[in-house]
Amino acid sequence: MLLSADAGRNVIFGYQPAMKGAGYQFKRKDLISSIAESTEKYVWNDLDGDTRKWFRPSDVTVGTDGAIYIADWYDPVVGGHQMHDSVGYGRIYRITPVGQNLTAPYLDLTTLEGQLDALKSPAINVRMTGFEKLKARGADIINEIMDLLQQPNPFVQARAVWLLSQLGPEGISEVKQVLAGASDPSLRVTAYRALNSLGKTDLNLAILAAKDPSPAVRREVAISMRKVPFEDCREIFSLLVKESNHQDRYYLEALGIGLQGKESEAFTYFTEHQGTDPLQWSPAMRRLVWRLHPPEAIAALQTLATTAALPLSERLGFLTALGFINQTQAVQAMFDLSARSDSIGHMAQWWLDFRRSNDWLSLWDWPVPSLDQTTLSQDVASWQATLLNGSEPLEDRKEAALLMTGEISGARLLISLATEGKLPEAVIAAISLSMLNHTNKEVRNMAYGVFERPNSPGFSITYIASLTGNIDHGKSLFDVKCSSCHRIEEKGQNIGPNLSVIGKKFDKFGLLDALVNPSASIGFGYQQTLIKTNDDQVFSGFVISRNKMAIVLRDIADQRQVIPLEKISSEHTLQSSIMPDPVSLGLDEQTLADLAAYLLTLN
């Protein structure tokens, strides 16, 4: 059984693995809990007075005595960097079977008996010590280790198999016998793994195991072929594919791992036997081609994606396989599919939009989006030259900066210059209000944190928390002030984080702190990046993709900008949130209390 501690749900989970095809299924149960039933819908900061929920298991292990030990930090809250237990109380639970007095055994590791007992230990460090001591004795103890194969505990049997494989030719011979004749498929899996770990893969053993009735054993064979040239293992894969169950995802993935780097050779080989017409392929062959997706399969994948007789889910899978082939022909095929008006066509267009920002960028002459609004005009270029000329009078440089704020491209450029430390403090002070109150929303959002609002009032979170908030007014405030960036259920935009369950994530003080100081803690994925190109164009947004060819930004209009690396002159991560401060939103203490009161209901 596998054990897992979940502090939020007040439970130690137990997972009992069971073999299922080439993989496993894990049935989970609440093994140890302080409440009747664990639930994933817990509220991390919900202080409901139920002291049963103070059980916060943080770790679990099995001791040398066979007991389960659980570390419990004991607190009413989990998460949020909060701790309400002022005493700092905690404990370690020791769980034993009813009526049994478990004791840690005395193990004399200088004797064979003590070493064998150590190998049987439930504690991993103890049994590893026993393993190493026994291994050092060599082939002289093979009979004693063979006796362990008769133990009722299958895990002890597995340890014996691993140890035998380390005891020279005679031990290896015994493990081969286990692989050939053990009734338990798990033990045969162990035997194959142990033999394969010794060095070069034994192809004769692989052929034997490839005929095993258990898909779990055949899975191990497939994986072990990943470094074997295809010409040496094609007979083995013929056996493995012949016995494959196309619905067994574990088995299919094992075939894919074993054929990694050999996809094209395998495709050619199998199509010689199944034919080149994909509509005549067996379901297992179609699934194998989906998993391997070699360049040679582009035409076949395109055909399968448009075959109406196949289920839509399967057709979309072939489309996905096509999207992972980095060839010009794959791009062309995707363009052909995008011309369709059905689900396949819509998804093909999605793949084109996505892949043009990474591996497919260099494979196609993509249309360049219009960037006229960001093109640097001659006036802006002239004003920038004056601004950056240290010999010009300061007043002239201030005036040039103010003129630049009047054009979007100039305002963006000013933000880039400020982040690079190229603007004098006097110039920053002269343009701050113009930038923070700019008519362009993107410029305003970029300006927060780069420029400071003079004489900005401070807010007391403690005082705001003491006010009674009006939930209805708070909802109206959200609709007017926040929904242009945030979403609640089906209402609003997806620029900033979704707030549908924000009340579960924050208490009142934490939420008010996020409203008053939005830049103090920026959520992962919501940090603004500022990029300047070689021709002084400036882009900002959230980085949604970065690769060896381009950076993809998502701007506040929820549009993607693909910027080739070769065109980037500078990149800066802004330490300011895209969310405006309360003053910029026109909020005071009472309206902040109203907004917080509404948001706290969203759980």
Largest sheet: 5 strands, antiparallel
Overall mean pLDDT: 90
Shape: globular
Q: How large a portion of the residues is in β-strands, by DSSP E? A: 5-15%
Distance between the termini: 35 Å
Q: How helix-rich are the residues, as a percent range?
A: 40-55%
Low-confidence stretches: none
User: Quick one: how many beta strands?
Assistant: 13
General description of the model:
It is a single chain. The chain has 603 residues and is an alpha+beta fold. Helices cover 45% and strands 13% of the residues. The protein has helices at residues 112-119, 124-137, 142-148, 154-164, 168-181, 185-196, 203-210, 215-224, 230-242, 249-258, 263-274, 283-292, 298-305, 312-323, 328-338, 343-355, 378-388, 394-405, 408-419, 425-436, 441-447, 461-466, 471-482, 502-505, 508-516, 582-585, 589-599; strands at 2-6, 11-20, 23-33, 57-62, 68-72, 91-95, 487-488, 491-492, 528-533, 538-546, 550-554, 560-564, 568-573. The strands form 4 sheets. The protein has a 5-stranded antiparallel sheet with strand order 12-11-10-9-13. α6 (185-196) packs parallel to α8 (215-224), α18 crosses α19 (408-419) and α18 packs parallel to α20. The two termini are 35 Å apart. The mean pLDDT is 90.
